[in-house]
C-alpha cells in the first residue's frame, strides 16, 4: 500500500502544490546517523516524500546496507552510497568538560571532510535545494557547505542530551533555547552574534525552565488527556503511518543547543513504519509458542560492558520461566544463548516484537526510538544505558514509571527487582497514559510533507522565516562575560541607589 492512500490530504497533489512556482522538481537530500533505527527512519522518510512524485529525493546510505538501497530504489528515491573509513587523526574531546555541542560538531565534520574531500565535492555539485537530517550537532554546517537554502532537523530524541545526562544538570548558555519545538531553517550566512538583550532573555529563560521541567511534563500530559476525554479521537481507529510532531509530554523536556533558532510548528519524527523488516517464519513460530518473552536489544553500534553482559547471561540462564529474543550483542559466554528458550538474531524486527502480546518486557539501551516504540505498545522497559542521550532517557523512564533504570555495575539483583515490578503490573497505568498521548499526536499532528511544502513556498527575503545558524563565539560571548558584567553593574547601581536613600532617610 502506498503512503498516498493513507489520507485525503495526498489524493490530489497537483492541487496541493499548485502555488509552488518551480520549473523542475526540487532536490531533497536526506542524511543522518547510520544506526539501524535512524536508517529505518530516514528510509521511510525518503520513500514517503519520493512517492508523492513532487520531489527528487536522495538518501545517503552505507554501501553495504543492501536492504535499504533496494527499498529506496523500489519507492523511487535515489541512494547515494557512503563508504565507511576510519580517521587516524580524530580530535578527542572530553564530554564532561565545558565543551559546546557545536564545537564538537565542527570536529566531527572536519574529520569527515578530510577523509572524503572528493565525495563531499561531488555531493555539493548536485546542488540540492534542501537537506533533511536527524543529526543535531553538525549537519547545519553541512547544509551551509552544500549551499542548501533550506534545512529541516527531524528528531527522534532529546536535543543535546549526551551533554546533559540528567534532569537538573542542563548546561545553560545564552545562545541556547529551551522550548522543545521545531527547528526549520532557511539559510543565512554564519553568524556569531545575538544582541545582548536576546542573550540575556535566553539565559534567564533557561534558568527558569531548569526548575520547571517536571511540572511542564505533567501539564502537557493533562492537556492531552483532557482533549482525549472530550473527543476520543484515537479509539477504535487505525493510526495513520505519517511523520508526526515531537511528542511533548512523552519526551523529556531538555534545552536545545545554540546552533539555530526555532520556527513553528513542532519537529517531525515518525512512529511506525511501512518498510519494516519482515519477521522470519522461525521467529514468528517461536513467539507464538512461548507465553512469556523478554526482548533484549542494545542498538546497532554499542553494547554494555563485559561485566554487565555476564550478569545478563546469568539472568537468562536462571529465568527459566521466560523465553528470550535477543539481538546479538557479542557475549563472551555463549552458553546462555545456546538454549531452546533463546533465539538470537543479527537484526530484529523490533516493531513486530514489541507489538506481540507474548512479549512481557524489553531490556534496552534506552535509545529514544526504542523507548517510544515500547510506550506505544505498552511494553515496560528495563533500561541499561550505554552512551549519548540514553542516560537521560533512562532516568526519564524511571521517573515516569515506564519501567526500570539500571545504571550500575552490579545489575543482576536490579534485573530481578525490575521483573518483579513488571509482573505486578506496576507500570501499566503510566504506559497506557503516555501511549494515549502518542496516539493522539499521531492522529492530529501535521506531516513532514507539510513542513517541506511550507519552506519551499516561503520567500527567501522573509526575515521571519530566515533564521541564522550559530556556530562560533568570541571569548566574551562564550563565557557570558558581558551578560554577567551587565547584571553585576545593575546590582551595584541598585545597591548604591538604596544606600543613597538610606543616607537621606537617616538625615
How far is it from the N-terminal to the C-terminal residue, by CA? 88 Å
Strand-residue proportion: 5-15%
Overall, the morphology is globular
Category by helix and strand content? alpha/beta
User: What CATH architecture of the largest domain would you give?
Assistant: 3-Layer(aba) Sandwich
Protein name: Antennal-enriched udp-glycosyltransferase
InterPro entries: UDP-glycosyltransferase, UDP_glucos_trans
Pfam families: UDPGT (PF00201)
Organism: Stylonychia lemnae
Please supply descriptive tags for the structure shown above.
3 domains; 12% strand; six-stranded mixed β-sheet; membrane; glycosyltransferase; alpha/beta; six-stranded parallel β-sheet; 18 helices; UDP-glycosyltransferase; transferase; Antennal-enriched udp-glycosyltransferase; single chain
Task: Describe what you observe in this structure.
This is Antennal-enriched udp-glycosyltransferase. Pfam families: UDPGT. GO terms for molecular function: UDP-glycosyltransferase activity. It contains 18 helices and 14 strands. The radius of gyration is 25 Å and the shape is globular. A 6-stranded mixed β-sheet has the order 3-2-1-4-5-6, sandwiched between helices. It has a 6-stranded parallel β-sheet with strand order 11-10-9-12-13-14, sandwiched between helices. A two-stranded antiparallel sheet has the order 7-8. It is α/β, with parallel strands linked by helices and 507 residues long. The longest helix is centred in the last third of the chain and has 26 residues. Helix 3 links the parallel strand 2 and strand 3. The N terminus is likely disordered. The N and C termini lie far apart (88 Å). The chain has 3 domains: 228 residues, Rossmann fold; 163 residues, 3-Layer(aba) Sandwich (Rossmann fold), CATH 3.40.50.2000; 27 residues.
Amino acid at each position: 500500500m502506498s503512503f498516498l492512500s493513507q489520507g485525503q490530504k495526498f489524493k490530489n497533489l497537483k492541487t496541493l502544490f499548485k502555488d509552488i512556482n518551480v520549473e523542475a522538481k526540487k532536490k531533497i537530500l536526506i542524511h543522518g546517523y547510520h544506526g539501524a533505527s535512524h536508517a529505518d527512519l530516514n528510509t521511510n522518510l525518503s520513500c514517503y516524500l519520493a512517492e508523492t512524485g513532487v520531489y527528487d529525493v536522495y538518501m545517503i546510505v552505507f554501501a553495504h546496507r543492501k536492504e535499504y538501497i533496494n527499498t529506496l530504489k523500489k519507492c523511487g528515491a535515489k541512494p547515494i552510497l557512503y563508504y565507511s573509513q576510519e580517521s587516524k587523526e580524530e580530535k578527542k574531546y572530553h564530554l564532561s568538560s565545558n565543551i559546546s555541542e557545536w564545537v564538537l560538531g565542527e570536529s566531527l565534520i572536519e574529520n569527515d571532510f578530510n577523509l572524503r574531500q572528493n565525495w563531499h565535492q561531488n555531493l555539493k555539485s548536485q546542488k540540492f535545494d534542501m537537506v533533511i537530517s536527524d543529526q543535531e550537532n553538525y549537519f547545519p554546517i553541512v547544509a551551509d557547505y552544500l549551499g542548501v537554502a533550506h534545512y529541516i532537523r527531524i528528531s527522534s530524541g532529546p536535543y543535546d542530551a549526551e551533554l546533559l545526562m540528567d534532569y537538573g544538570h542542563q548546561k545553560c548558555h545564552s545562545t541556547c533555547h529551551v522550548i522543545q519545538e521545531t527547528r526549520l531553517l532557511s539559510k543565512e550566512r554564519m553568524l556569531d552574534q545575538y544582541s545582548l538583550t536576546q542573550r540575556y532573555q535566553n539565559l534567564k529563560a533557561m534558568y527558569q525552565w531548569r526548575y520547571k521541567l517536571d511540572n511542564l511534563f505533567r501539564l502537557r500530559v493533562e492537556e492531552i488527556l483532557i482533549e482525549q476525554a472530550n473527543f476520543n479521537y484515537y479509539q477504535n481507529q487505525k493510526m495513520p503511518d505519517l511523520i508526526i510532531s515531537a511528542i511533548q509530554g512523552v519526551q523529556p523536556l531538555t534545552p536545545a543547543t545554540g546552533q539555530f533558532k526555532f520556527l513553528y510548528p513542532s519537529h517531525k519524527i515518525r512512529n511506525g513504519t511501512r518498510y519494516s523488516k519482515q519477521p522470519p517464519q522461525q521467529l514468528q513460530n517461536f513467539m507464538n509458542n512461548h507465553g512469556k518473552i523478554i526482548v533484549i536489544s542494545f542498538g546497532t553500534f554499542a553494547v554494555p560492558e563485559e561485566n554487565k553482559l555476564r550478569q545478563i547471561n546469568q539472568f537468562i540462564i536462571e529465568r527459566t520461566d521466560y523465553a528470550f529474543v535477543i539481538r546479538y550483542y557479542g557475549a563472551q559466554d555463549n552458553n546462555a544463548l545456546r538454549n531452546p528458550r533463546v533465539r538470537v538474531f543479527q537484526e530484529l524486527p523490533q516493531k513486530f516484537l514489541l507489538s506481540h502480546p507474548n512479549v512481557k518486557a524489553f531490556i534496552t539501551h534506552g535509545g529514544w526510538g526504542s523507548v517510544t516504540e515500547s510506550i506505544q505498545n505498552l511494553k515496560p522497559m528495563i533500561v541499561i544505558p550505554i552512551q549519548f542521550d540514553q542516560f537521560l532517557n533512562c532516568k526519564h523512564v524511571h521517573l515516569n514509571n515506564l519501567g526500570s533504570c539500571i545504571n550500575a555495575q552490579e545489575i543482576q539483583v536490579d534485573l530481578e527487582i525490575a521483573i518483579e515490578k513488571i509482573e505486578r503490573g506496576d507500570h501499566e497505568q503510566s504506559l497506557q497514559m503516555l501511549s494515549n498521548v502518542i496516539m493522539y499526536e499521531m492522529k492530529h499532528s501535521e506531516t513532514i510533507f507539510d513542513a517541506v511544502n511550507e519552506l519551499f513556498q516561503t520567500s527567501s527575503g522573509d526575515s521571519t522565516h530566515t533564521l541564522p545558524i550559530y556556530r562560533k563565539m568570541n571569548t566574551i560571548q562564550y563565557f557570558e562575560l558581558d551578560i554577567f558584567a551587565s547584571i553585576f553593574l545593575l546590582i551595584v547601581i541598585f545597591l548604591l541607589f538604596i544606600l543613597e536613600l538610606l543616607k537621606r532617610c537617616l538625615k
